[in-house]
Design brief:
Layout: E1 9-13, H1 18-29, E2 34-39, H2 46-52, E3 56-60, H3 66-75, E4 81-84, H4 99-127, E5 132-136, H5 149-170, E6 175-179, H6 187-191, H7 202-214, E7 218-219, H8 223-240
Parallel strand pairs: 1-2, 1-4, 2-3, 4-5, 5-6, 6-7
Helix pairs in contact: 1-7, 3-4, 4-5
């Protein structure tokens, strides 16, 4: 399902910094008409308004507070593209004392937050012509490292939900894109000690524009992600993007 961002109205969660800001920059560079910058603290988006003026409209949204998602949707009734970029990175091994708490918070924000965003905004996208839903997943959705096990578990679950949304929302004409960055230069990656080999967040923003236009379901935007995506491609095309009914036993 091909989708061009030019002239469209988008909402980006976590728009004030990192990958979210890069997505705002890319969308406006490619002709988006308006961006709802969905952030927890409205003041954190002031620099975007200063740069882009009336093309950026800050609205409050916190994935851990469902009522703010509903309120944001009341404001953004004209939205055509929803980018669920905001998330939490709290990693533990399965053996850490805090593993349960880390997993619970990751599931609440990275998974339940996605579900609530889809439930609230999918009807609006349908009314506005179908549009697109972009979900920021991760290479951690596909490959679990022991030190990041709880984070990987939440991102794997979010990827499963994204696959379901791809099937369900496709019926209403909504394009769904699953984005799987690797090492990207953000505050979260730096805090996790992963900033050394990180690549610019602009790769994600520009990649989303290109992938939507191409009608892709997966995006692996940076060099690390591309290597993993290349290895994953055959499985994805054969299983993930295929109707599972093709694999049901055939009665003879």
């Amino acid at each position: 399902m091909h989708y061009d961002i030019e002239g469209k109205i988008a909402l980006v969660t976590g728009a004030n910094r990192g990958i979210g800001k890069a997505i705002v920059d890319a969308f406006l560079h490619h002709g988006a008409a308006k961006i709802y910058a969905a952030v927890r603290n409205l003041d954190s988006a002031a620099h975007l308004v200063e740069r882009y003026g009336s093309k950026v409209v800050p609205i409050q949204l916190d994935l851990i507070r469902p009522e703010t998602i509903v309120a944001a949707a009341e404001t953004a009734k004209d939205v055509q593209v929803v980018v669920n970029n905001a998330g939490v990175f709290i990693a533990s091994t399965p053996m850490d004392d805090e593993a349960g708490n880390s997993l619970e918070l990751g599931m609440k924000i990275n998974v339940l937050g996605l579900i609530q965003m889809a439930q609230v905004f999918a009807p609006i996208l349908k009314i506005n012509g179908g549009g697109a839903l972009v979900q920021l997943n991760s290479i951690a959705s596909l490959k679990c490292s022991a030190n990041f096990a709880t984070h990987s578990a939440s991102k794997a679950a979010a990827y499963s939900i994204t696959q379901a949304l791809h099937e369900l929302l496709g019926r209403q004409g909504t394009a769904v894109l699953s984005v799987h960055p690797g090492l990207i230069a953000t505050d979260m990656s730096a805090a996790a000690g992963l900033g050394g080999a990180a690549e610019p967040a602009s790769l994600v923003g520009e990649g989303i524009v290109t992938a939507l236009k191409a009608g892709d379901f997966h995006l692996f935007p940076d060099s690390m992600a591309k290597r993993i995506g290349s290895a994953y491609q055959h499985f994805s095309e054969s299983i993930i993007e295929t109707d599972i009914s093709e694999y049901r036993p055939v009665k003879i």
